[in-house]
# Entry
Amino acid sequence: MKKALIIFYVVVGIGTLISCNKDFLDENPKSFIIPENFFKNIEDAKSALFATYAATQTTGFQWNEGVQHATFYVADYGTADPGNANFHAMVDYAYTSNSPFLAHIWQTGYNTINKANFTIGNVQKMDSDLISEEEKNQIVGEARFLRAYIYLDLVRMFGDIPLVLLETETIDDVFKPVSTEAEIYENIIKDLEFAMANCPPIVRGSAEATGRVDRGAAQALLAKTYMNMAGFPLNQTDKWAEAHALLNDLISNAGTYGFGLQNNYLDAFATSNENGKEDVFSIQFEKGYGNAAAGRGSILHIIANQQRLRITPKLIFSYLKADGSLDDADERYLAIRPYRIIDGTPVFLGLYSTYTNPLSKDFPPGDENEGRIRQRLVAKFIEQEIQDNKSSQNDSGLNNPIIRWADVLLMMSETENEINGPTAMAYQYLNEVRLRSKAEAAPEGMLQEGFRQYILDERARELYAESSRWFDLKRSHSLIEEVQKSLDDFSGVSRFSKLRLPEEKNYYFPYPQDEVSFNPNIEQRPGY
# Structure
């Protein structure tokens, strides 16, 4: 019930809906039908919805030059192979409006939004004798969640953007003016509130847990939305309380959804635990289709795409304990494969190794001439069965986590600190995350500002390479400051250190040049 099978094609206006989702429902192909003839029963409505889910899997949005890559490179701990100019344009804040990353994100993001709008508009029109009101609202709620999820990423990256709430049918529909960030956020809130009201809870790990949106996912994403509104650039600090209330309710009702932390850090990313207790919302993938792009844990996919991600020494040193010694029991540190600290210095051990245990402390540099498997990306995105040669190297079902339960606990700790300071509750949820990964408990006695910085760093330690860090640095308005720390403390330690500082303009990405060139209602962002 995961992904790679073409379900149907619907040609509508200038847009084409293509679904490659096998996860939720097995469908017979339906080809070249107009909406008026297609939406005749609930199965048709589900097919349109699953085409929207499938659009989130496209390589241009989350991974493979999508959000994961773009936000990784521009964060303080992200860098790339020095030999690739396109990647290092992002790393060195030299990217322009012609960046392929930004064009892919924009195009695939709005393509997904258009499919969500297609689903929402046409399902809402269906007569009550074709679909019950409850079924209709649930499908529309899931589509509105997916639309909100895309808009949240787009508004955080680009700022003022076109707000498209109806299906694109004519060329005139393409040339939309931008709406303000506040307007985009208000619509995200409306979409997520509707999803919360109409998508029933799903118990993680049950037969019903197939990756579809439920109330818990909508509630967590709405809390994340409020936290972003509370920070830069809107600075609506009243939103801290709204996020706190949502998170408190979600944690209090964790049993309703079966939410919790997996016993070990890498268990949270194992295919055997997908849609389990730590998955709040993930993009779904499934093995069995022999395609390197079918799953994110594919070795071929990693070689082609994921090996580009390199960790800077700054993240490695964030695992030092208060006494200056390395917390080498922390499973999150051990899952960063290419690095080890030798005599107090982070050493990049090369691209190859012979180990198969992701938590092994013995990471030899290896010999390229022996033709060993490339290992550049962090271990949490490599499926262990592939690593152990128990399944095909070009086929993986590893999902892409968007919100994990660990993220929810850290958000709760952060909002508690913002409202009440570093209370016992704030420490409780922070330490739940740390102790699960075998790290020491957080140091006691921190004041609010110190705890704020600690949580920001903890989110990096827990969520690295999960499309989180740059967004966190943006809402805390600390991107320049944190990259400066990397330059001051670690420049020259490794050839994978950051080399340049970002500017204030780098809190936003430029609009893709094609969009500016062809849409007379969009002017390029300042500084670009």
Observations:
- Strands lie at 9-12, 15-18, 78-79, 161-162, 178-179, 279-283, 310-311, 339-342, 345-348, 400-404.
